[in-house]
Design a protein that fits this description.
Strand content: 35-45%
Helix content: under 10%
Radius of gyration: 15 Å
Order of helices and strands: EEEEEE
Low-confidence stretches: 1-25
Distance between the termini: 28 Å
Mean pLDDT: 74
Shape: globular
Number of helices: 0
Length: 84
């Protein structure tokens, strides 16, 4: 609620949920993303898998159905967030 009016949107301030209609996954903070490599995997709307995307800024991608992985120093993947 803002000024007594329900906006129907999620307002996020420093990864703290202030107002929302439905429960959503926890906010992911990519503060150290300049040093960390991430991989985005998933499917297109047609159901076909796309090639893994390697990036330092995963928050700049609009993911319809997929997963964000962090690449650890041991070259293993750590699950960060999954979109259904």
């Amino acid at each position: 609620m803002k000024n007594g009016i329900h906006l129907g949107v999620l307002i996020v301030d420093d990864c703290k949920e202030i107002d929302m209609i439905q429960a959503s996954p926890p906010c992911v903070n990519f503060a150290n993303s300049k040093r960390t490599l991430y991989v985005i995997t998933g499917k297109l709307k047609s159901g076909k898998r796309f090639k893994p995307i390697h990036t330092h800024t995963p928050q700049h991608y609009n993911i319809w159905s997929g997963t964000i992985w962090e690449i650890l120093p041991s070259n293993k993947r750590k699950l960060i967030k999954r979109f259904y």
